[in-house]
Amino acid sequence: MCAHVMVAEDDRRQAELVRRYLEREGHSVLVVHDGGRAIDEIRRRQPDLLVLDAMMPEVDGLETLRILRAEFDFPVLMLTALVSEDDLLRGLDLGADDYLTKPYSPRELMGRVRALLRRVRRTAGAAESVLTVGALVVDPARHEVTVGGGLVECTAAELRLLSTLAAQPGRVFTRGQLLEQAYGRDHYITERTVDVHILNLRKKIEHDPRKPDYLLTVYGVGYKMADVTR
């Protein structure tokens, strides 16, 4: 499972430690120390995975992520010293696939990297059908979502959640089941993350997010996709 990994970390000692562990597992690694350089290098050669520090000089990790997500869809593992749940959810909302809070163990970091790369390879090898629910169309292979013909921008995690729900309209999923679909079985993010993604998706695809036609809450259980035919 060798991959090209970029590490964007302004702490040079920490960056060198991460580089050594990644190379020990057979990955090729490029290390940069600020967000601007990360953006430039990624535009030259898109990596298979980005390990991104949230706190960097000039262009910080969150702004770097916002810029890159408008252009690329490779997995991003965010490293952060920010400990509040709101800070972590902001990174997920911008399109991070996973996060690790500092201080962390190198073994845990490598486990997260392996999990992200496995998921990317499973997705690349799977034949994914276009899903249609009323005026909502989800195309996982092309990473496209449209409503009434209008293109909707979604993060990778939002697309996975939407694909899971749209594949089985009417079926109720618990938050835990949706969390597993979006992030994998070996994840540490709380179930509140699912609520945040659903809220954001309603803002993007519903005519009135307060009275959704597609993403319905099943109180005390979780969420389901409405069985819409119109």
UniProtKB/TrEMBL annotation:
One of its GO terms (cellular component) is cytosol. The keyword NAD does not apply. GO terms for biological process: regulation of DNA-templated transcription. Residues 128-227 form the OmpR/PhoB-type domain. The keyword Phosphoprotein applies. Residues 128-227 bind DNA. The modification 4-aspartylphosphate is found at D53. Pfam families: Response_reg, Trans_reg_C. GO terms for molecular function: phosphorelay response regulator activity; transcription cis-regulatory region binding. This is XRE family transcriptional regulator. It comes from Luteipulveratus mongoliensis.
